[in-house]
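Review this chain:
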Amino acid sequence: MTVDARPTLSAPDDDPFLWLEEIEGTQALDFVERQNQLTLTAFGGKAFEHDRDILASIYDRPDNIPYVSRRGTDLHNLWKDAANPRGLWRRTTLTELRKAAPAWETMLDIDKLAAREGEDWLLSGIATTPGSPRAILSLSRGGSDAVTLREFDLVTKSFVADGFTLPEAKGGADWLDADTLLLSSAHGEGMVTSSGYARTVRLWRRGQPVDQAEVIIETTAEHMMIYGSADDTGPESRAWIVEQIDFFNHAVWLRDAAGSMTKLDLPTGIWLQAHGDWFAMKLRKDWAVQGRTYATDTVLGISLSAFLDGSRDFSVLFEPAPRRALQGLFWAAGKLVLSILDELRPRFEICTPSATGWSRSVLPGLPEIGVVDVWPLDRHPSESNGDLLANVQDPLTPPSLLLIERGVASPVVLKQAPKTFTADGLVVTQHEAISVDGERIPYVQTGPRGETGDAPVYMSAYGGFGHSVKPYYNSSLGKLWLERGGTIVQANLRGGGEFGTRWHDAGRLAGKKLSHDDFAAVAADLVRRGVTSARRIAAQGGSNGGILITNMLVRYPERFGALFCTIPLIDMRRYTKLLAGASWIAEYGDPDKAEEWEWLKTYSAYHNVEAGQSYPPILIATTRRDDRVHPGHARKMAAKLQAMGYEAWFYEPEAGGHGYGKDNKERAGFEVLGYRFLKEKIGWRDEG
C-alpha cells in the first residue's frame, strides 16, 4: 500500500497530514488518485462491475415508486434512471398516477441542462408559491450542499430571462410574493456564519441587485444560521424566521404583512409547527410557565392569537414515556398529525383544534409493525385538503405508497415497489443487547433462520443528532448480502431519537462514547447468541457513523472482522474548523474549550490510533464534493493508519456531495466497492 506522510504544514496538535485538508491541492489530489487506483485494482474488476450493474439496474427500474408532492393540481416528481442519470423533473395528475403507466410531462431534463451548460448540475430543490407560474430552482454541482438559485417559468418550462439568479452558496429562498423573495443565503460579503450558512434574511425584490436587498434580520457569525419561510395559512400573508443558535436551539420570529417582527416568548429547544391561528410545539427541556411545568418531549398546542395576547393556556397533545417518543409533527388542512414510536412500533395520532378544545383520533388502517412514514401530499399547506401519503415497508417487504384521502379515509395503495431480492427462508427478529452501563440496546436482525455461529453479518448504525434509525427495505443489502446467504443487523444506539430526548442526550457530548459502547455491545451479543463470530462481523457507518466505525477500530478491534467507514467525521480536534463542522458543537462539544476537549479526545479516533495494535482492515471512503463533512477527515485517517503499517484502504470519487454518488450507477459502485471489501476481509465468498 502507498504510505503518504508529508509534514508540509503544522497544526495546533502538530498534525503531519494537514496538507490533505487542501481539497483541491496538488499533493492531496495525487494522494487521492494513487489511493483510488490501489483500491479499485484490489476490489474492482469484473466481479465488481457485475454487482454494480445488478444494483444500478435495480435503482433504474421503471417500476420503482415515483414519489410525488402536489403543487396546485399537479403532482411533481424528480426521476432518475439509466437514460436520465441526473434526473427528470416532471409532473402528472393524481388521476394519471393511479394508472399502471402514468403519462408524465417533462419540466426540465437535468442531463440536457448539464450538457448544454457544461456544468455538473443536479436539481436539489424547488421553491414555488400557490397560484404563481414561477419557481426558484436550486442547482447543485455534483451533489454539494451549496447551490445556484435560478428562476424558472412553469408554463414555458424554461428559465426566466433577467429573472432571479444567485451564484453558488449555501441556503435558499422562498416566495414572499410574485416579485419578492425571502432570501436566506450565505452569498455575499459578511453573509456567512462560521458554520458556512446564511447569517441574514433579506428581502430581494425583482430587478434589484442582490447586494442591495434589504436585510430584515441577522444573527451573529457564531450562531449556526438564520432562515425564513413564507406562510399564507393565516388571514394575511406572514413569514416565520428561525434563528438557529445551534443544532438544537433556536429563536422564532413572526413577521406580519406590514413587516413588523415579533419574537415569540418560547424556549429555544422546541420543534414548532403553525397553521392558521394555531401552533403546536414539542419541548426539548422541562418548561415552567404561569405556575405549571411541562415535561421534556411533551407536545403543547395553543391559539397563536391568544398566545400573542399573553395567554399561556396550553393544551397537552402528547406526553412521552421512557420507550415512547414523538418523531415528528405536521399540519394538513388544519389538522395536526403526530408521528410516534412506541417501543419502536409506529403510531399516528391526529389532533384537531377548535374554539372548544382539541379533539383526538388515530390515523386508521396503518400497520402497527414495520416502518410507516406519513407526510402531507400537498407542498403548500394553504392548498391542502388533508390528503396524506404513507410509505409502508419492512426489511423483507418492499415499500407501498398509500394515499389517505383527507386524512380520514382508509389507505389505498397508489404504487407498490418491486421485489428486488429473493427473501425465501429469511426472517426479521428483534433483540436487545446490554451495554456497559446496563442500558438495553435494541437491534433488528434479518437473515436465515437458526444460529450457525458463522454467519457473515453486516452491521450498521448511526447514533447521533436525535435521528431515529428504522429497518427499511434495502435493495442493495437485500440483493448482494441477504440473497447470497448473509445476515444484516441494524442497531438503535443512544444518540438517536428512537426513545426521545433522554435517549439522544445520553449519546451526545461526553456521552457519545456510550453510543459507541452500545454498538460494540450489539456485536458481542451476536456472538453470545451464537449467530456469528467476531471475525465474520463487517460493520459500516457514515457521517456521524464515521466516528462510530473508527472508534470500533481503535477501541473494540477484537469484535469485528472488517470495517467500512463512509463520508466520515473523524478528527474531533479540528472538526469545527472544517466546512460545516462548527454547526455540530451542540452534538459533540467544542475542542477549543479545555474541559470539552477532555471528553472529545476520548472518541477522536484520529488521535487515539496507536501503532502495534491488532486492528481489523478498514476501507475509508468519502467524496470530493462533500461540502458538509470535509473529505480531509477520511484522507488523514487513511494516511495515518497506512503510515503506522495498518491495512487501511481509501476511496474518493469526485462527485456525490454528502452521499454516495450523483447518479444511480455511481451510488451503486460506491456501495458495491464497500461490500466486496467487507466480504473479502471477513472471508466470505458468496455465490454471486
